[in-house]
Amino acid sequence: xxxxxxxPSPLLDLQSAAAAQSANGYDKIAARNARQARExxxxxxxxxxxxxxxxxxxxxxxxxFGGGHEETIFQSMMxxxxxxxxxxxxxxxxxxxxYREIMRQQEV
Length: 108
Description:
Radius of gyration: 26 Å
Strand content: under 5%
Number of helices: 4
Structural class: mainly alpha
Oligomer: single chain
Helix content: over 70%
Order of helices and strands: HHHH
Shape: elongated
Number of strands: 0
Largest sheet: none
Distance between the termini: 42 Å
């Protein structure tokens, strides 16, 4: 006797639908994880670029905008936004390497 033929076909359809839904759920989770990994990698690259820009301006004497604490704050804010912009537009390749490493670590 074939056991598959003994199972009512509506039950088989429910099992197939449940398996498909489970696979679809897995795909959604995988897509969400990939999106979060990409955002994290870009964020890391932007922090790195911010530090590079900060160190680049470390030797520049304040004074163009009157100097003082306000200019230092403005310079820091500008460096942060420039770093974010560079990272969003493709960056310098750090985000891609970090993304690949995050995804590789998730496979373990």
